[in-house]
């Protein structure tokens, strides 16, 4: 919180320097001794770290390669094309994401399944990760929940720019998702074998109304697990 | 809590190690002194005890143990300590990426990495430099510091036959006492002032011989700053000379062990608190470190050493840390009671052999030195640097008059009461006044974070 300091010349005590310096040494020594004698809380979540009180150092350092701060549930990571249970993309090549993308980094070529007269699929689905501004509009625009940024990963670095052009083969990954309202589940599809269809219907669930449910499906990342951990921590602290 | 007990253990082990180290130093001094005596006796063909031979032999041993071990090791460790301690002050971890068997060992392995880097770096030499002076400057910066440590009385004198293994060597009083002090000169503090004033040549020449405007500016700033502060440095110690009636540092230390007010010993800090503050500030300015680091300034002039690279820069850099060690040694000897372990001193003196009491004393001296080094590094991380005019104003308008007043007050008090009790009371009064001034709240505290404060913020 910035506040205005009165601009006045130093009084006698301040112009003697020594009293103020001794006070400063006291403040610094407090930090020094606390950090010398007490260890860091190992919790990598800096905001949740115990510090400052007696028995804990004031240290805020995160030893990066070994310790990593967990990302927030809303973290927008690398895109993925969400697969169906049968391994095909949920995407129906409607161009919504390519249309809303302010950086125009999504390129889609639509195609039709040879045995299914209704459904389309993306023959090509290319995202130029170098142009992507990570705004997340594509995820918002998608009517089929077919593109997500829930991977919790950064775009991996590469030596060639061409390696940053991600096509549908690399984008299609992560856990499959099925919803009860999915049209291919309700009406069936010739491209899906009947027993597979039954399995997909069995695993389909209602569309989520709570935002955190989606994030909880991120591989390697779970809001529920985090919440449980925080609860455990709080309970341990109360004891 | 594990770290808490570990740290207590480390501190206890360090103290015990210092005592054992000092015992080793005494052994080295005693044995080398006696060996030197035997050697000269064998060469000259006249067996017997020679005062000078024992003294010279002990001095040679002390050069090795005190100058090369205590001074050099601690000043090189300070380069690591500066990083590690500043990290502790600023709530960081500090240098810890070099690991030996999985342990960072408090960052100490960085010492080896630094030395390797300095020694293997490319030497870049400017064409316009004045060759002789350019090469001479790092040596001139380093040598006086080294010479200064020669008169620091790290350990008290004990008789030669009190050292283990030398019981039958020479009767007490037959030869010079063995002390952990390279040179016991009558000139004492005068030698200190003389050598300390040589320090300015290293920096001034480094700036001048580099043929670089910025380096020259750094050198000129260094000269004006160091020459100014030499005046208050000298005057601040005049009070202690009057109080202890001697110039010799070892006699000052002995005098500080005598009780003056009941059981309270006549520490320099007690008799001369103002002298201590002035000496500390002036000597801090002599070390050219923050807040007095005007000779170097990365944002304006780079510094007097801008044209130096590799180990030549390393020597200039190490000289500053060696100055810290020497300053810590002088303050310990003159103001903090030197080798007197203050606490439990009578009990220790009664229950230990003279040899081990001396070793404990020398360990206490080094421990006090470490505290003073820590204090200097703390102040370096506490304060922003002064402006140049503020530096001169602080010296000529504050420190110098205060030092002069201190000299007259000390002289007057001792004239009225030669036992020093009046001086001690004046010292206690001064300390109380400083403590009250420190505790009193000066500036108004920051306004409470509320709506009013938000309105005061710029741009609101």
From TrEMBL, chain B:
Q: Which UniProt keywords apply?
A: Cell inner membrane, Cell membrane, Membrane, NAD, Oxidoreductase, Quinone, Translocase, Transmembrane, Transmembrane helix, Ubiquinone
Its EC number is 7.1.1.-
Q: Name one GO cellular component term.
A: plasma membrane
Molecular function (GO) terms listed?
NADH dehydrogenase activity; oxidoreductase activity, acting on NAD(P)H, quinone or similar compound as acceptor; quinone binding
List, in alphabetical order, the GO biological process terms annotated in this UniProt record.
Answer: aerobic respiration
Could you tell me the membrane topology recorded for this protein? Answer: Multi-pass membrane protein
Any one Pfam family match given in the protein's UniProt record, by short name: NADHdh
- Segments spanning the bilayer are 53-80, 132-151, 188-206, 227-244, 264-285, 313-335, 355-377, 398-416, 422-441
Annotated InterPro entries = NADH_UbQ_OxRdtase_su1/FPO, NADH_UbQ_OxRdtase_su1_CS
Q: What does it catalyze?
A: a quinone + NADH + 5 H(+)(in) = a quinol + NAD(+) + 4 H(+)(out)
Q: Where found in the cell? A: Cell inner membrane; Cell membrane; Membrane
Q: Which PANTHER family does the entry mention?
A: NADH DEHYDROGENASE SUBUNIT 1, NADH-UBIQUINONE OXIDOREDUCTASE CHAIN 1
Spell out the subunit comment: NDH-1 is composed of 14 different subunits. Subunits NuoA, H, J, K, L, M, N constitute the membrane sector of the complex.
Q: Which family does it belong to?
A: Belongs to the complex I subunit 1 family.
Job of this protein: NDH-1 shuttles electrons from NADH, via FMN and iron-sulfur (Fe-S) centers, to quinones in the respiratory chain. The immediate electron acceptor for the enzyme in this species is believed to be ubiquinone. Couples the redox reaction to proton translocation (for every two electrons transferred, four hydrogen ions are translocated across the cytoplasmic membrane), and thus conserves the redox energy in a proton gradient. This subunit may bind ubiquinone.
Recorded protein name is NADH-quinone oxidoreductase subunit H
């Amino acid at each position: 919180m910035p506040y205005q300091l009165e601009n006045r010349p130093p009084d006698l005590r301040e112009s003697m320097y020594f009293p103020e310096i001794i006070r400063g040494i006291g403040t610094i020594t407090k930090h020094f001794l606390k950090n010398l004698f007490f260890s860091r809380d190992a919790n990598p979540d800096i905001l949740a770290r115990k510090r400052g009180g007696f028995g804990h150092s004031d240290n805020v350092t995160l030893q990066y390669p070994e310790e990593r701060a967990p990302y927030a549930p809303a973290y927008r990571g690398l895109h993925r094309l969400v697969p169906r249970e049968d391994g095909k993309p949920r995407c129906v090549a409607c161009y919504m994401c390519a249309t809303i993308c302010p950086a125009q980094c999504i390129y889609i070529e639509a195609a039709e399944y040879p045995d299914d007269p209704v459904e389309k699929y993306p023959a090509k689905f290319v995202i130029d990760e170098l142009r992507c501004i990570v705004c997340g509009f594509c995820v918002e625009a998608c009517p089929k929940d077919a593109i997500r940024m829930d991977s919790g990963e950064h775009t991996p670095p590469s030596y060639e720019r061409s390696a940053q052009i991600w096509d549908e083969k690399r984008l299609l990954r992560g856990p499959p998702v099925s919803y009860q309202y999915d049209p291919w589940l309700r009406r069936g599809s010739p491209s899906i074998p009947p027993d597979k269809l039954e399995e997909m219907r069995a695993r389909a669930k209602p569309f989520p109304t709570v935002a955190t449910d989606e994030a909880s499906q991120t591989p390697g990342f779970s809001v529920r697990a985090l919440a449980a951990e925080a609860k455990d921590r709080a309970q341990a602290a109360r004891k | 809590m594990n770290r808490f007990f570990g740290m207590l253990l480390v501190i206890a082990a360090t103290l015990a190690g210092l005592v054992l180290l000092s015992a080793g130093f005494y052994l080295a001094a005693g044995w080398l002194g006696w060996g030197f005596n035997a050697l000269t006796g064998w060469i000259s063909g006249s067996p017997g005890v020679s005062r000078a031979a024992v003294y010279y032999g002990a001095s040679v041993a002390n050069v090795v143990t005190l100058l090369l071990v205590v001074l050099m090791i601690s000043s090189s460790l300070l380069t690591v300590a500066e990083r590690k301690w500043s990290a502790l002050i600023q709530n960081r971890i500090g240098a810890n990426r070099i690991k030996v068997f999985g342990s960072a060992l408090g960052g100490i392995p960085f010492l080896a990495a630094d030395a390797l880097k300095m020694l293997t770096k490319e030497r870049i030499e400017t064409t316009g430099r004045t060759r002789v002076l350019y090469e001479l400057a790092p040596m001139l910066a380093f040598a006086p510091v080294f010479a200064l440590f020669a008169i620091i009385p790290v350990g008290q004198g004990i008789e030669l036959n009190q050292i283990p293994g030398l019981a039958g060597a020479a009767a007490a009083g037959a030869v010079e006492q063995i002390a952990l002090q390279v040179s016991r000169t009558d000139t004492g503090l005068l030698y200190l002032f003389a050598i300390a004033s040589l320090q300015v040549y290293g920096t001034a020449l480094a700036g001048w011989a580099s043929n670089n405007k910025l380096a020259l500016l750094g050198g000129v700033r260094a000269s004006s700053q160091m020459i100014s502060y030499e005046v208050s440095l000298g005057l601040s110690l005049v009070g202690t000379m009057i109080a202890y009636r001697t110039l010799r540092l070892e006699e000052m230390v002995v005098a500080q062990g005598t009780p003056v007010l009941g059981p309270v010993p006549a520490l320099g800090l007690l008799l001369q608190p103002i002298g201590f503050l002035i000496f500390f500030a002036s000597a801090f300015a002599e070390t050219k470190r923050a807040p007095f680091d005007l000779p170097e300034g990365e944002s304006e002039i780079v510094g007097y050493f801008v044209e130096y690279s590799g180990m030549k820069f390393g020597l200039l850099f190490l000289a500053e840390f060696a100055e810290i060690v020497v300053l810590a040694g002088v303050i310990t000897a003159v103001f903090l009671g030197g080798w007197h372990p203050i606490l439990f001193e009578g009990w220790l003196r009664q229950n230990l052999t003279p040899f081990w009491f001396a070793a404990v004393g020398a360990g206490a001296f080094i421990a006090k030195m470490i505290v003073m080094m820590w204090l200097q590094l703390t102040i370096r991380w506490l304060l922003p640097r002064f402006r140049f005019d503020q530096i001169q104003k602080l010296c000529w308008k504050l420190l110098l008059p205060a030092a002069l007043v201190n000299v007259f007050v000390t002289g007057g008090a001792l004239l009225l009461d030669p036992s020093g009790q009046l001086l001690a009371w004046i010292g206690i009064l001064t300390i109380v006044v400083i403590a009250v001034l420190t505790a009193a709240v000066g500036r108004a505290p920051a306004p409470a974070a509320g709506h009013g404060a938000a309105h005061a913020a710029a741009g609101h």
